[in-house]
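Pilot study result, target chain (410 residues):
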Amino acid sequence: MASSTLTPVIFFTIFIIFDLQTSKAKQTICKTLSCGDIDITFPFDLTQTTQIQDPRCSYYPNPSFQLSCHKKTQTILSLPNTNNLIINNIDYKTQTIQVNDPEGCLPKRYLGNNFNLSGSPFKLNPEIYRLYNLTLLSCPSNVSSEFPITPVSCLSEHDSDTSLVVSWGEPIEDTTLSETCEVISRGLVPLPRMDMTMWPFWVDLNSDVELVWNKPRCEKCAVNGQVCGFSDDETNGLQVECFPSPSNGGLSTSAKYCISIGVGLPGLLCLVVICCFIRGKMRTLLPHNQRTSNHPSITISLEPLPSFVTGLDGATIEKYPKILIGESGRLLKPSDNTCSICLSEYEPKETLRSIPECNHYFHAACIDEWLKMNGTCPICRNSPEPYSSTTPYLSSLLLSPNSSPMTSSR
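Predicted structure:
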């Protein structure tokens, strides 16, 4: 029995090990790299690092996903048509990144038209931003207090008499402002859609800008706690799919099913073995005459249950003899002068009925009701045979002082 139980256990253990090894052979486990507080994983890769990654752990067809780490704190994004940007956050669930200028002055890029996302997989988040044609003006420092305009902090010259401010790109209607300030540049600037209603109190143009990427699509993997990567099937080319996270042990779905079955089935078999062992022990404790030789089941000796006896029908009851007590109240047995059913003493002129064979007698009304519900004598509990007398019942017997006692006895 033990060997038959171990066989499935060994089988499932070998199957699980084989599945795990196969999964590891097929799937490339990609590490999560980091630069400062930024976690870097597929589709991004970190160059110039001692942590060697498999080439398939990054979306290598597009070099814009190749990041670099500057001074171990700044994650640098290199784009083909603009200067480097610094990444301050990556959200893999929404496929968005927050970028800014490494020197901390995005408006300077707007001033020089140096914020070009063409040729890269990234674009402004269309749900947040809209491009507005703004004009950058160089104005005396006292203008910001006279006009409702917000200076650009990183471009303002705090140690001089001039500061840089922003305004609409439309022709400036206020002649005082147009005569006082000098137009430096005009260009498209990404501003949150809601900020249009706040003009001219613009938010700081130096805030992070949110970019999105649409290819490859990996947000479902991040939402489900999995990692994204290239498909193991080489025929799929650059198709990506979701894999178990290395933090979960790298188990595939089939491996998890195998572990569940491999643990559950041996557990069930062990329970069967324990039950068989207990049954065998119980059989050895039973007397020899209670064991069965041809069937392995346990023989349990039970006392026979009493058969359920129903009452008698009225015709049968009427065939049982009746006795009429005379005026003297003399009975067949003077010592038996009480009905065992109602526990009342017999009185003269009362009608009694006796049960054949045992000859026990009772009040006729009491025994009739009893026999309708129970086909046994209330005293001896015997089930009398149906009375075979050809007469409906024994003729009434008057027990008087001149009559002789009955020869029948109880």
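One observation from the pilot: The first strand starts at residue 33 and ends at 35. A full batch analysis is planned for the follow-on phase.
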